[in-house]
Design a protein that fits this description.
Elements lengths: L16 H10 L20 H11 L4 E2 L2 H6 L6 H8 L9 E3 L4 H14 L1 E6 L18 E6 L6 E5 L4 E4 L5 H9 L3 E2 L12 H7 L6 H4 L2 H4 E8 L2 E5 L13 H4 L8 E8 L1 E2 L3 E9 L2 H13 L6 E5 L1 H8 L18 E9 L1 H17 L3 E4 H9 L4 H10 L3 E10 L3 H16 L4 E6 L6 E10 L9 H20 L19 H19 L13
Parallel strand pairs: 2-4, 3-4
Antiparallel strand pairs: 1-2, 5-6, 6-10, 7-11, 8-9, 8-10, 12-14, 12-15, 13-14, 13-17, 16-18, 17-18
Helix pairs in contact: 2-5, 4-17, 16-17
The chain binds flavin-adenine dinucleotide.
Cofactor: FAD
Pfam family, one: FAD_binding_4
InterPro entries: Alkyl-DHAP_Synthase, FAD-bd_oxidored_4_C, FAD-bd_PCMH, FAD-bd_PCMH-like_sf, FAD-bd_PCMH_sub2, FAD-linked_Oxase-like_C, Oxid_FAD_bind_N, Vanillyl_alc_oxidase_C-sub2
């Protein structure tokens, strides 16, 4: 991926004319190209330490190249992109190292601990919470530990339905390896094409098919990690047990602060023979959310279940013939679109469809047929490209997410919307959807678009405006008694809001684990732990 944008450059492009005209009705469009490329700071890691890394991994796997280092600088949140666009390379790693396996990772960690080098595990680089922007002060240098060479299917147990995967496998690569055996993982976050197995585990990611296949951490049966104190193997003996607290959980969501995940054993399932996606209309977000709750609590969940609020329906998914219509007040008044997807054997899909359709009809939903569902499925990974095109014309656009119990959903929704609208001012668009549900609650995923204010070179003015709005939203989430993140993780961006959620003793426990596993504090300093 280019450092200033998302994804495959071949898919990137300016705003289509129609969209541009529409956007210009709402926001002033100010062409805001990235600043001219600035020189990448010279590596700060002393040359003898670089030589030491070369001895461990071989010359070709210790990379000082400017373009490679720039590409390993931070992740892909809007603040990350705006900083790159402005030429801010303060977080550039000094060296990128490319271990070939667990033993290489262990060797790098041992060496880094001895020489106080900060180590940043790097999977796909799609973090949206500052998980790759570590503190540099007090370290001899910063090494980006790129896991991209560790991308094989290491073991397969078709009898138990488990597969052991290398951490550097991207989503499509992992699925392709499993598909050769008629199997799949079923984890499809919007970042699927670029994010990796190790990254999914390290951030407790959740994908678009979570209703049917669960979140990533729930798919993990076991893992292997290298820590500065040595190797950890967890969960390799049984699917579940009562052998004390489940230590797998210490590494799931540990965001590279406790160790580097070098192998992940996951539950796999047969490739679905049939995939069907359809749309349903709801008179309001609340009515659709109540229906989702009923499905979750009635053990009737399909594979994909997502509901856009009135604004998101109108802006992103509106079909004039099906949504809105009579009595519609345009954005905010045209009802809500729900996408329902079914995957599996023909018999299982048919049976689930009948049962879900009966329940949704009873609850007041109106079927819209396959077209909205297929349109969603066809474009499910495209939205991030649109973000870049909007950033190009000076608009602020970013997403954030949270999760709470059903009884708190409306309060949280109102609080976050109001915080964002107050912080960013009149004309701000706040869209929301629910795409991860549980019997007890759901996540809320917000997309925000706002005027950029006075743009500076590369858009710094927008960065300040967004950071203030994000702080307001985070405060509102905490004040509402919700979680600071459902699946984007903590990183550095959410770290200050973790303490209210887990308490002082919770923070002390995290710090104690960190001290035990990483006494020199070389792994991702500043990430996760308050
Ligand atoms: C456009 C876009 C859409 C997204 N959609 C979703 C979504 O639908 N669902 C979702 O859950 N997330 C989503 N994300 C967030 C992101 O993709 C996830 O957090 C993902 O799991 C990160 O994987 P990665 O391989 O890119 O990790 P990275 O970004 O490389 O790393 C993330 C963190 O984990 C650490 N890490 C990485 N690999 C390892 C390892 N092997 N061992 C230990 N630590 C490691 C890193 O140091 C860092 O702190 C999205 C992001 C973007 C930009």
């Amino acid at each position: 991926m280019p450092p200033t944008r998302w994804g495959d450059p071949a898919h990137a492009g300016p705003l289509p004319d129609g969209v541009r005209d529409l956007v210009s009705l709402v926001f002033p469009l100010v062409e805001t190209p990235a600043a001219a490329e600035v020189a990448v700071p010279a590596p700060a890691l002393p040359a003898d330490l670089v030589d030491g890394l070369r001895e461990l991994l071989g010359e070709e796997h210790v990379v000082l190249d400017d373009a490679v280092r720039r590409n390993r600088t931070r992740g892909k949140s809007t603040p990350d992109l705006l900083r790159q666009r402005a030429g801010d390379l303060a977080d550039v790693p000094d060296v990128v190292v490319r271990p070939g396996g667990h033993d290489d990772v262990q060797a790098v960690l041992d060496y880094a601990a001895e020489h106080r080098i900060a180590v940043v595990p790097f999977g796909g680089g799609t973090s949206v919470t500052g998980g790759l922007a570590v503190e540099r002060d007090g370290y001899t240098g910063v090494v980006s530990l790129d896991l991209g060479r560790m991308r094989s299917l290491l073991a397969l147990d078709p009898v138990s339905s488990t597969a052991t995967l290398g951490p550097g496998l991207r989503g499509p690569e992992a699925e392709a390896l499993l598909a050769e055996h008629g199997l799949m993982l079923g984890h499809f976050p919007q970042s699927f094409e670029f994010a990796t197995i190790g990254g999914f585990a390290a951030t407790r990611s959740s994908g678009q098919s979570s209703a049917g296949y669960g979140r990533f951490d729930a798919m993990v049966v076991g893992l292997r990690a290298a820590t500065p104190r040595g190797e950890v193997r967890l969960g390799g003996t049984a699917p579940s047990n009562a052998s004390g607290p489940d230590l797998r959980e210490l590494f799931l969501g540990s965001e590279g602060a406790f160790g580097v995940i070098t192998e992940v054993t996951v539950r796999v399932r047969p490739l679905p023979e049939v995939k069907e996606y359809e749309g349903w209309h709801w008179p309001s977000f609340a009515a659709g959310a109540d229906a989702m709750r009923a499905l979750a609590q009635g053990d009737l969940l399909p594979t994909v279940l997502r509901l856009s609020d009135e604004n998101e329906t109108a802006i992103n998914l509106a079909r004039p013939d099906a949504i809105g219509g009579e009595g519609s007040a345009g954005p905010g008044g045209g009802g809500c679109l729900m996408i329902v997807g079914y995957e599996g054997t023909p018999a299982a899909v048919a049976a689930k469809k009948v049962a879900v359709a009966a329940a949704l009809t009873d609850l007041g939903g109106t079927p819209l047929g396959a077209e909205p569902g297929e349109a969603w499925a066809a474009g499910r990974f495209n939205a991030p490209y649109l973000r870049d095109s909007l950033l190009d014309v000076g608009v602020i656009v970013e997403t954030l997410e949270t999760v709470t119990f059903w009884s708190n959903r409306e309060r949280l929704y109102a609080a976050v919307r109001s915080a964002l609208e107050s912080a960013l001012g009149e004309g701000t668009m706040v869209l929301c959807h629910i795409s991860h549900v549980y019997a007890t609650g759901c996540s809320l995923y917000f997309t925000v678009a706002a005027a950029g204010g006075t743009p500076g070179a590369g858009g710094e003015g927008r960065l300040d405006r967004w950071l203030a709005a994000k702080t307001a939203a985070n405060d509102a989430i905490v004040a509402s008694g919700a979680s600071i993140t459902h699946h984007h993780a903590v990183g550095t961006d959410h770290r200050d809001w973790l303490q209210p959620e887990i308490g002082d003793l919770g923070v002390a426990v995290l710090r104690a684990v960190k001290r035990e596993l990483d006494p020199a504090g070389i792994l991702n300093p500043g990430v996760l732990i308050p």
